[in-house]
Every structure is written in structure tokens, then in C-alpha cells.
TrEMBL record:
InterPro entries: Nucleoside_phosphorylase_sf, Pur_nuclsid_perm. One of its GO terms (molecular function) is catalytic activity. Residues 1-20 form the signal peptide. It comes from Nocardia ninae NBRC 108245. Keywords: Lipoprotein, Signal. GO terms for biological process: nucleoside metabolic process; transmembrane transport. This is Lipoprotein.
Length: 319
């Protein structure tokens, strides 16, 4: 090909390529996605309501993250981290360090299921945490062999990740937006509540605190241990009401990136953390709780309300 024709062809090709690489607002495919709210889920059933009910056409593959991130042009992104603290920490670190995502004005919202003590909340209820506390860290001893230690627990040290106090103003805002919401319920959940002495209790929205542990426990004694650890780690300020497996890991990564004050965790009650009177702990663990589907529906409903608000009120970095 003569040199002049080759140059013309190259110019045309380059122009077409540049045009194809520019989408909405003239942004190229190499530009990072500007995240307004990152919704954080842990496993497929928690993620599905967002993928099914939202239009999230932008897929962002981040190396070492658990799964691709799904986003839209409004700034809503949904990321599934995987279950447990290790998966959550690995995925969050990958996302926050990725050049493909811009978190300059982002808020972060965990929307997930949780267990709960029946004397605090009930199936289908939604909780906004003020404190996120780690169940695992410290010495866990056989109580009978360490009678001087309540519940056989000794905190040892903080590890810098044992307890996080979230942004009170942000938590209060989320609670205020959702406290009067109508929550899904079912006859099956009502029947299960009755076994726990809650025949007339209905799902509600509350502010209380969440316990993170890789150990999925069952039983009143362990529930009481969680309550005790919550008090120890928060100097009596925290009120244990949900148990889950990821939030301290998520909070730790956000804290190290300077984003902790933008973080909310919404945990909806899928099951109780102990069996009903007369039920064995093994039967309790094998039971499919009637609260599971409710917790997924209510998590999405309340989460979406807060997402709407946060997208309209993005984080404003200090100048």
C-alpha cells in the first residue's frame, strides 16, 4: 500500500476506534466507573433481588474479587464478596484498590441476612448497626474450666479490628428514612415466632448492633456469650441484636482506605440464633427458617430507599 493511502487508512481507523471507545459523556472504556453507592452482598440469594429488580448493564471485572461488580449510569453498583471474613476482606481490598472504580463520592452499604436473639428482634426485622464487633478475637475457654471469666471469654487485646463505631449521623439518617416502612411478613414466619413465645410480634426496623464471626453458632449459651462480648468490646454501649460473618472485615478494609465514615450495614433477620424450647441445636441448624425469604425482600426494600437518598446526596470530599 502506498504510504499516503496507508496514513489515510490509519487515520480513519484511529478516528473510528476513538469514537467507539467513547460512551456516555465522552468517557472512554478505560475511564473508571464513578460509584455513588456500593451495595455489598455476601452470597447469591442476597445479590439476586438487586440483579433482578435493577438495571445494572455495566459489568466491571476486578482481578481477585469474588465476582464481577454490576453497575449502572446512576452510580449504583452491587458487589458480592463471598461469605466469611476472609472472602469479604479479599474482595473489598480488590475493589477499593482497583483503578476501574472511582469511590471519591461513594457511600458503602452492606445489605445482608443475619441471625438474631429472640428476646431482641424477630424474623423479618431490619437492623441498622451502630457498632460492628468481632466475636472471634480473644480467648474462648471452656466456661467450667475458667469460672472467673464470664462465659469463658477474655478479650486479650483489640487487634485494631475488634470493634468499629459507625457514623452516627449516617446511621440515624438511614434509620429515619426506613423506620416506618411496611415490611414483608408471612403466616409461616408468624407460626415460627410462636414457637419462640412471639405469637403477636411483627417485623420492625431498629437501631442495634451486630456481631461478626466466622463460627456459625447455635444455642442460647453462645448467644449470651455474643451479648457479653458486645458489652466488653463497646464498654457497655453496644446492644447485640444480630450475628453475621463479614461486617468487621468489610469495616476494616474501609477504615484502612479512609472510608469508614461512609459505611452502613443493614442486616435483616433470617433466623434466630438459638433453638426454640424443646428443639435441639442440630435440628435448629438444619431447619429452613421461614424468615429467610422475608429477610431478602425486606433488605432490598429498605436498602433501595437508602440508596435513592445517597445517590441524591453523594459524599462530599473535603477540599
Amino acid at each position: 500500500m502506498p504510504l499516503r493511502r496507508w496514513i489515510v487508512a490509519l487515520t480513519v481507523f484511529t478516528t473510528v476506534a476513538m469514537t467507539a471507545g467513547c460512551g456516555d459523556g465522552g468517557k472512554s472504556a478505560a475511564d473508571p466507573v464513578e460509584v455513588g453507592v456500593l451495595v455489598i452482598t455476601m452470597f447469591d440469594p442476597e445479590t439476586e433481588p438487586w440483579l433482578q429488580r435493577e438495571s445494572l448493564p455495566i459489568t466491571v471485572d476486578v482481578p481477585t474479587a469474588y465476582k464481577p461488580v454490576h453497575c449502572n449510569a446512576d452510580g449504583l453498583c452491587v458487589a458480592e464478596t463471598g461469605q466469611g471474613k476472609s472472602n469479604a476482606a479479599a474482595t473489598m481490598m480488590a475493589l477499593l484498590d482497583s483503578p476501574k472504580l472511582d469511590f471519591t463520592k461513594a457511600h458503602f452499604l452492606t445489605v445482608g441476612t443475619a441471625g438474631a436473639p429472640p428476646d431482641q428482634v424477630t424474623l423479618g426485622s431490619a437492623t441498622w448497626a451502630r457498632w460492628v464487633v468481632d466475636f472471634d478475637l480473644g480467648n474462648h475457654l471452656v466456661p467450667a474450666e475458667a469460672p472467673s471469666l464470664p462465659h469463658g471469654y477474655r478479650p486479650v487485646e483489640s487487634y485494631n479490628t475488634a470493634a468499629y463505631r459507625l457514623n452516627d449521623k449516617l446511621v440515624d439518617t438511614a434509620f429515619g428514612l426506613t423506620e416506618h416502612a411496611t415490611l414483608a411478613d408471612s403466616p409461616e414466619a408468624a407460626a415460627e415466632r410462636a414457637l419462640f413465645g412471639q405469637p403477636d410480634r411483627k417485623p420492625s426496623v431498629t437501631k442495634c448492633d451486630t456481631m461478626t464471626g466466622d463460627d456459625w453458632f447455635s444455642g442460647k449459651e453462645l448467644s449470651d456469650t455474643a451479648r457479653h462480648i458486645m458489652g466488653v468490646r463497646t464498654n457497655g454501649q453496644g446492644s447485640y441484636c444480630t450475628t453475621q460473618m463479614e461486617d468487621n472485615a468489610t469495616a476494616a478494609v474501609l477504615d484502612r482506605h479512609g472510608y469508614l465514615d461512609r459505611y452502613l450495614t443493614l442486616r435483616t433477620v433470617s433466623n434466630f440464633d438459638q433453638p426454640y424450647p424443646g428443639q435441639t441445636v442440630l435440628d435448629h441448624l438444619e431447619q429452613q427458617s421461614a424468615g429467610f425469604r422475608l429477610s431478602l425482600d425486606n433488605g432490598y426494600t429498605l436498602g433501595r430507599t437508602v440508596v435513592d437518598y445517597l445517590l441524591k446526596n453523594p459524599y462530599q470530599p473535603a477540599r
